Amino acid sequence: MPRLLHDRRAVLVLGALILASSLAATHMETAMAQPNARALLSAAEQGDVPAIQALLAAGTSVDARNDQGQTALLVATIAGETDAARVLIEAGADVNAQDAIHDSAYLYAGARGRLDILKLTLAHGADLKSTNRFGGTALIPAAERGHVETVRTLIAAGVNVNHVNKLGWTALLEAVILGDGGARHQAIVRALVEAGADVRIPDKEGVTALEHARRRGFREMVTAMEGR
């Protein structure tokens, strides 16, 4: 075999060996990283702070995700594990990272009234303009579900009280349409009105929050909005 051809084959073989070795190393790193990511997500769900700290110290990505696109922080938020969420946020977790259905730690905490976690996200760069899968800000589902202190916190943070979601509803409309008319939703309506919520914004059928309140016999809400 000519020496030149022999040398070329040797180079190709060596290159192939190097590539194979590199791919093997990559697969090994991936295989090692995946269990660590799964462990971090599991620790976040269980609120296991020492395990979270150990995994992060070992180099596990703080924003590792599961197959739903949820980060460890979002998992901790859903589980209501405030201490775990705090450790992750202080380690640099992205409070605005959204999963496959557009939930983020900030949006979920707002929607579900996870007030302590919400305050942590607000202190670490929460995007007040970010929206969920319905095109709504954190304020809208908070108003719907009757989370009074959450609503007040989001208003104080500067969330737009007149944002309209894909359903054509503002926080005020949702508080009236989907609320029960009780004390919590009355307090939310007052808070929204005092913060400048526009009672004249209609839904897609042209009906305002004030008119909905009248139709449902929510007198306290009517009074709050008529005084605007």
From TrEMBL:
Keyword DNA-binding tagged: no
Keyword Lipid metabolism: no
Ranges occupied by ANK repeats: 35-67, 68-100, 134-166, 167-204
Species of the source: Azorhizobium oxalatiphilum
PROSITE patterns named among the record's database cross-references: ANK_REP_REGION, ANK_REPEAT
Signal peptide per UniProt: 1-24
InterPro entries per record: Ank_Repeat/CDKN_Inhibitor, Ankyrin_rpt, Ankyrin_rpt-contain_sf
Coiled-coil segments on the chain, per record: none
Official protein name in the record: Ankyrin repeat domain-containing protein
Alphabetical UniProt keywords: ANK repeat, Repeat, Signal
The organism's place on the tree of life at top rank: Bacteria
